[in-house]
Amino acid sequence: MTSSVDPQWVIQAHGLTKKFGDFTAVEQLDLLVPKGNIYGFLGPNGCGKSTTIRMLTGLLTPTEGTINVMGLAIPKQAEALRHNIGYMTQKFSLYDDLTVTENLQFIGRIYGIDNSTCKKRIAQLQSTYKLSQYQHQLAGTLSGGQRQRLALACACLNQPKLLFLDEPTSAVDPQNRRDFWEQLFDLSEQGTSILVTTHYMDEAERCHKIAIMEKGRIRADDTPKALMDNINAHVVEINTTDLRPLKQALISHIEVTSAAQLGHRLRVLVSKQVVDPISWLLHQCQQHNHPVNLQDIHLVSANLEDVFVSHTGQRVPASHEAT
Ligand SMILES: Nc1ncnc2c1ncn2[C@@H]1O[C@H](COP(=O)(O)OP(=O)(O)OP(=O)(O)O)[C@@H](O)[C@H]1O
Description:
Alpha-Beta Plaits, ATP binding, about 35% helix, nucleotide-binding, Rossmann fold, 2 domains, 11 helices, ATP hydrolysis activity
């Protein structure tokens, strides 16, 4: 049985909740992922992104809520779904003691793809993902970037219409991450919908739409541009010296959502409830015996990290900031 679904959405989830004992990992989550989009899932560690993906793929049964993925009611029709999706987990579940080709052949057998089709498909994927020269190498001896490409090739073997990618680029260098995203856009252009979790703000900005999760709930979802345009804070940069004490003084104010040092600048998010953030900050700096000149304080445009911080109250770890 196929449950009724609006065909513009590849994923529809309503009121999704997952409890582990007394702990609620995902709470009343509503999610609509448009067909053909690359949809980004952002949020602090432990906010429930992987748990959500595992429910959407039918690997975990929700405590409450309904899920419809590609017209299939999940988890009831999870078996049918499995043949139509690709799933790349954080740990790139590869068999280290099998070669590149053997890993792909193994996945082909799981999907029941006949030998000659599988052989052609493997040759294609090895060429697309620059794995041909490593085809006889054991997966356990590949570099991080090569493992990532093999994991993506494995996830694409059954030509899925929908790909779930859970932190697919966490172990690779910036150039490999760029190449990986080029491959995602190729897949997207060929009609594949993609749900991807990431901690990298530059990757989030590449997505057609993103959702920001915190403590099991979606706090905001829209296009990256709309989220930046509609951020619920003024973003102000202050150029001055002795930034550490000034930062400590400013973050003690409830109006200041965050203050982050960027070299010689302090980037401050001030609540929209403050009508004139420049005058307000000049006054606060004065009050804290740290006078600042008017020419050293500027309103600037929000970036996605500001949006993330404004919704989660968390700084992006330095290692995950845009490259
Ligand atoms: N099987 C489980 N039993 C108990 N708690 C669990 C289980 N699976 C996940 N959790 C908890 O649920 C919360 C959400 O975990 P999840 O892996 O979904 O987070 P995440 O957003 O993917 O984090 P990260 O960005 O670190 O990968 C965490 O507190 C985790 O410890």
